[in-house]
Design goal:
By secondary structure, the chain is mainly alpha-helical. It is built from 7 helices and 2 strands, in the order ααααααβαβ. The chain has a two-stranded antiparallel ribbon with strand order 1-2. Helix 1 packs across helix 3. About 11% of the residues have low confidence.
Amino acid sequence: MRTWRECLIEQIADQKSAIAYLQAILEDYQIYKNPAAVQRSLQTVVEAQGGVFALAKQVDMDPQVLSKMITSEDVPLIDAVGIVLEALGYQLSIQPINLENRNHGTYTDALETQNTSAHVVEN
């Protein structure tokens, strides 16, 4: 048997699914204001996309520095998100919220729809 996290990592290994997952996480953050959930999710995406060492190599950064950045509570969350998203080849963009059709669904819902208030796009 596999853990839920193992299944999630497998599911978000491709770029399209990782983007949908990050979009859902950012939307949840806007609602629930839980930076720890964003941080854990970012760590999961990094692992699914090859891990800290592979990502650090792509951006010419010491893996220990990158690891500390995405696990530390001392680094401002927005800084860590921006650096890691850029290293993954994504960017954060802000879009207006469509209040009539706002999606408060789960990660699975996010895989089916791209209607979010914060948007991660591929560079």
